[in-house]
Each structure stands twice: as C-alpha cells, then as structure tokens.
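REQUEST ID: PR-0412
SUBMITTED BY: lab tech R.K.
PRIORITY: routine
TASK: structure prediction, single protein chain
INPUT:
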Amino acid sequence: MTSEELKTNIEKALEEIRPFLQSDGGDISLISIDNDTSVKVRLEGACVGCTVNQMTLKSGVEMTIKKYAPQIEEVVNVS
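STATUS: complete
OUTPUT:
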C-alpha cells in the first residue's frame, strides 16, 4: 500500500467514526501518519474534555483505522 493509499484508507476510517463522535458533540482530525505505522489524530469539541476519550480512541478509532489499514500499530491523540 502506498503512502497515498494509506492516507486515503485512514480518512475512510475516520469518516466511518465521525458520525458517532459528532452525535456527542465531538469530532476528529487526522494530523499525521508517521513511518506508515503510527497515526496522530486530534479529538475535538466535546471529545476534548470527555472522561472516556482514551477508551474511544483505543476501542473505536484505533480498531476502525486498523480495519482499513492493518499495518498501523498505534493511534495517538495530540492536543
């Protein structure tokens, strides 16, 4: 998978997740993809102060991104 295909697949994953985050007043943005194995995202809106945002990040966001891009090893939220 090329870097461009990887980015496209990660954007598709975020599009799948976004409606769930938006329904709770939040959102997510792709910040960067490092070494084709690590994804940096920014949780926004209500997600910033949410007490379960780490759980959302790991069980929702990371799982969905890995479904579209299995080579991704980690997803990190940057403030």
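NOTES: The longest strand covers residues 26-34.
REVIEWED BY: pending
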